[in-house]
Each structure stands twice: as structure tokens, then as C-alpha cells.
Amino acid sequence: MPVLVENDAAWASALTAGLPAGTQVVAGIAQLDNWLANQPAEYAVVLGPNTELDDAVALAERLVTAHPTTGIVLLRHELTSLVFQAAMRVGIPAVIAADDIDGMGAAVERARQVFEAVRGPVPEAAERDGKVITVFSPKGGVGKTTVAVNLAVALSGSGAARVCVVDLDLAFGDVAITLQLIPEHTIVEAVEAEEHLDFSLLETLLTRHENCSILAAPTHPEAKERISPALVSKVLRILRQHFDYVVVDTSPAFDDQVLHAFDESDDCILVATLDVPTVKNVKVALETLDKLNLAEGRRHLLLNRADDEVGLSPANVEQLLKMPVSTALPSSFAVANATNHGRPIVLSRPDHPVSKALIKLAHDLSSTGINGSAVQRGGAQPIDSDKRRVFGRRKK
Ligand SMILES: Nc1ncnc2c1ncn2[C@@H]1O[C@H](COP(=O)(O)OP(=O)(O)OP(=O)(O)O)[C@@H](O)[C@H]1O
Ligand SMILES: [Mg+2]
Description:
This protein is of the alpha/beta class. It has helices spanning 9-16, 29-38, 53-66, 81-90, 101-119, 144-155, 175-178, 189-192, 199-203, 229-240, 256-264, 276-291, 314-321, 333-340, 345-348, 353-366, 385-391; strands spanning 3-5, 24-26, 44-47, 71-76, 94-97, 131-136, 163-168, 207-209, 212-215, 245-250, 267-272, 298-303, 325-328. It contains 17 helices and 13 strands. Helix 3 links the parallel strand 3 (44-47) and strand 4 (71-76). The protein starts with a strand and ends in a 5-residue tail after the last helix. Bound molecules: adenosine-5'-triphosphate (ATP) and magnesium ion (MG).
């Protein structure tokens, strides 16, 4: 599938509408390099109109030897003689006006034909079996959205992996606003199409953010009731076939939609803070998950604001919850500051201790798992077949 380089979310959404389903979107040339390193059979790079001309020229000079069968389609806000001369000099075959969506599609198709003439058929996009990672806490305001968004950004590995964030805080979701995005579409538009929902339709509902895609929550709380738990399962199953990671942000409640997300999840990040009511509620949540045989495989305890001096220590929390803290995030003004500026701390300050801890969590989740931190609560118990019928973990 082609890859589009575009750092403007609105342009990225408009352009992907004219590109084949499953097109990867990356924010810049560095991320493109990460993508191409993993995609030797990439047939087209579409450079969005906000790519610097110098960057396009430098890329073309590199690709001609490193990826000679990858065609470049250069989009420009203005088609000037300077642009054409530069493109001709480095052999960029297609220079298209930014708003000529059909012309862009045709140029990408030509790139595919050239690739196939030299190297044979483009391999079918392999169906992925991406990981679904649900971030949950029974308490509000503890940092679920902060963790979900930053984890997603970290998992994307600067464009090397395809990541989608699903906002299942269906009444008061704020993933989009946290990223300063104004989504044109939300999950509620999948309701009408539930019967025949597929990726090509779902993809049109996604909002782009640099290297991630977002399936936004409805804009009005009452729309939550229209989103059935079955639709949630369907959406997650479709997305996992097309993304390497699907990160689910949740409401602070065990509603049916969230329970179905657990049912589809490979990993669950439970967020706690150092206060007794939160720890008590996380304990109850763990017991409930046990009873329902949900998320029994890998649960990871994330302690947010773990350095707050409030009379309860991380060791106390581990003792009370009978599971180790796998990730501890300190309290920092920089986190709230990043949220208020709409730029996740992992992007704005990758060297910050909070970012480092979340990047490590992403790394651990993307390899085999977190050593020693996966607690098999209830997993060893015989499975109640009746419960299984309702909440049977998806078999791989
Ligand atoms: N480690 C931290 N240090 C400082 N501020 C933090 C930290 N983690 C989260 N915050 C801030 O706390 C606020 C609440 O975080 P967030 O929205 O992620 O919580 P939430 O659990 O998703 O809340 P809700 O239940 O309302 O959805 C945000 O302003 C965020 O920036
Ligand atoms: Mg939230």
C-alpha cells in the first residue's frame, strides 16, 4: 500500500480519501524512512503539499538507489516552473496539484504499474493480527487518556508501525481534544453501517494525527446509547486486521461497551494512583475481571503520579492489589502542560521521565510482554462455559 507523508491532519484525511484503503500516513521524512525500512515492497510515496521542496528533492535522490522501484508522487499547493524543474532534475515522475485528488490517484496507480512491470505483482496487504491494548481505570481523572494517547504515539515508533486509538469513553471522550483535533467523523457513524461494516468504510471515519489514526468518540453524550457492545467488538476486530496496535481509551466505568473491549484485548493497562478510593476500586475492578474471565492474559498495573507523597506508597499498592507495578509515572507539570498544548509529552519531550517510562512500556508491549508483570488472575481457573459464550476471549 502507498505511504503518504503529510503533517497536517486535515490534508492527510482529505488525501487518504483518494488513496487505496490501508494507505499508511506518516508525519515527516524521518518517519517515512522508518516505514520504508520495514516495507521493501512499497510502490509509491505520496509527498503531501506541506512537504518542503528541498526535502522532496533530497528524498528522490536517496530513493533512486535505495528504493528504485518506489515511485514518488509530489503534491504542491502551487505548480510553479521552479517545482517542475526541481522534480525533473531528480526524476520525480509525477507533480500534481494538491487539490487534484483524481490526478493523485492516477499517478499512484501508474507507480503501481511501473513497480509491477519490474518486480511482479505488488504483494497483497497482509492481514495483520494487531494487538488490542485497553487502558482502563474505574476512577476518573487518573490519567487514562494521557496514558492511552502517549502509549499510542510511542507504539507508532515514529511511523514504523500502524497505530489506531479508539476512544471508548463514549459519553465524554477527549482523545481528539487532547491532540487538538476536531474530528469530522466519529464512531457513531458506524452505527448505521453496522451490518455491512468493513475497513474501507471504517477508515473514512478515522482522524489522522501525525503517525496515529483516531476513531473519535461521539460529540454528544446521548449518542453513547446508540453504540452497541457488538459494534464495539466488530470495530476492534476490523481495526486489528489493519493496524499493528489498537489502543483503547475507556470511560471510568464497566459499561457493556468497555467490557466488550476487554473481551477483544490482548493487554490491559490498569491505571491507579496513590489514593485509597482508587486502589479500592481498582481491586474491585480486578475481581470483576476475574469473575468474567476477562483480560485474563496480560494485565499491567500502571501507577500514575507514583511519587506523590500522600501516605500511601507504591509498595502498599502492590500489596493491596497483589500485583507488581509494571510502570510508574511521576507527577509532573510538564504532563498537564503537554495536554493543554495538544502535544503528547512523548512527542514534545521524549527525554522526560514520563515519556521514557511510557516508551519503555510501549517497547515491552511490542516485544513479548512485560517480564514478570503479567498476573494471571483467574486465568488458571477453569473457564465457566456460560460466561465464555458471552465474553469468550477472541481465539487467535
Ligand atoms: N503524571 C502526571 N503528572 C501531572 N499531570 C498529569 C499526570 N497524568 C495526568 N495528568 C493530568 O491529569 C489530568 C487528567 O488526565 P486524563 O485526562 O488523562 O485522565 P483520565 O483518567 O482520562 O480522566 P477521565 O476519567 O475524565 O477521562 C490531565 O490534565 C492530565 O494532563
Ligand atoms: Mg479520559
